[in-house]
């Protein structure tokens, strides 16, 4: 059996009992280590799970999946992923490869940012499409995400924006020369994300991301207890705060939709940079009837 097991969002204790049982039955256990990060070191996972973990980087998961799936038709093999197994298309792809090889598969779910985002006080059924925001460069500033955000805005829905991470990336020069030299990990900060959103708005000029009247909520280390950090405000307010005030990565951002309920306003007000500004913007720009 080939298992893909969600680890949740925080530490080694977020594993489900069903997931832990599958790990302990497995002859090999891989830890997918590039689509997200966990808040603890690998050795803490190994201590609780009582199994050595094999780090599976992008190259192994995407191009060397045969190594991971070897003998999974006769043995139990597990691939551990941060959050939920279906949080990245990479995991869907490896499941399809396993099925093509007639290997039995099983998915064991866990919490992910897609449902834990409710910690900010916005109601999950008011979220529209989720988008990813990549690091801009001097020559590459993709804006396809903007179309999805606009569709959500037109429907009044909230938008979850997943911020870029760069793990085990090569520079253009090293890639061209075939040198396996990797750049230090980089994680997009909230101010960088907001700056890119505002830059894209200036380019597209469709009026959906006004710095002064668009509310947003920044989150980091969701589900991490004392490490969790949530900050709410206008885009301009979030842009003007120092990056370190948002806590440690990973970070996410929610663009608040116009179908904003007064209970959502009240709940998220606790996290606001300026509570009066938060309520005034919700009333004046969003038409939210506050009690």
TrEMBL record:
It catalyses: 2-[(3S)-amino-3-carboxypropyl]-L-histidyl-[translation elongation factor 2] + 4 S-adenosyl-L-methionine = diphthine methyl ester-[translation elongation factor 2] + 4 S-adenosyl-L-homocysteine + 3 H(+). S-adenosyl-L-methionine binds at residues 9, 84, 87, 112-113, 163, 222, 251. Pfam families: TP_methylase (PF00590). Transmembrane segments: none annotated. S-adenosyl-L-methionine-dependent methyltransferase that catalyzes four methylations of the modified target histidine residue in translation elongation factor 2 (EF-2), to form an intermediate called diphthine methyl ester. The four successive methylation reactions represent the second step of diphthamide biosynthesis. Homodimer. This is diphthine methyl ester synthase. It comes from Crepidotus variabilis.
């Amino acid at each position: 059996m080939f298992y893909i097991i969600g680890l949740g969002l925080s530490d080694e204790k977020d594993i489900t009992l069903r997931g832990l049982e599958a790990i302990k039955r497995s002859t090999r256990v891989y830890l997918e280590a590039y689509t997200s990060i966990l808040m603890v070191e690998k050795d803490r996972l190994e201590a609780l799970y009582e199994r050595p973990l094999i780090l599976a980087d992008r190259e192994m998961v995407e191009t060397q999946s045969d190594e991971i799936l070897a003998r999974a038709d006769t043995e139990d093999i597990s691939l551990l992923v941060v959050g939920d197994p279906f949080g990245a298309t990479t995991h869907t792809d490896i499941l399809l490869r396993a099925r093509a090889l007639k290997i039995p598969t099983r998915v064991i779910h866990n919490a992910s940012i897609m449902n834990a985002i409710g910690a900010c006080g916005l109601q999950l059924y008011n979220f529209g499409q989720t988008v990813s925001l990549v690091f801009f460069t001097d020559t590459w500033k993709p804006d396809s995400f903007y179309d999805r955000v606009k569709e959500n805005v037109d429907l009044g829905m909230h938008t979850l924006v997943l911020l870029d991470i760069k793990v085990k990336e090569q520079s253009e020069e090293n890639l061209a020369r075939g040198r396996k030299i990797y750049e230090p990990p980089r994680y997009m900060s909230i101010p960088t994300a907001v700056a890119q959103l505002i830059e894209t708005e200036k380019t597209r000029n469709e009026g959906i991301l006004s710095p002064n009247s668009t509310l947003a909520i920044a989150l980091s280390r969701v589900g991490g207890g004392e490490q969790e950090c949530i900050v709410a405000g206008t885009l301009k307010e979030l842009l003007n705060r120092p990056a370190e005030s948002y806590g440690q990565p990973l970070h996410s951002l929610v663009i608040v939709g116009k179908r904003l309920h007064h209970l959502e306003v009240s709940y998220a007000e606790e996290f606001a940079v300026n509570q009066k500004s938060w309520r005034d913007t919700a009333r004046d720009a969003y038409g939210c009837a506050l009690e």
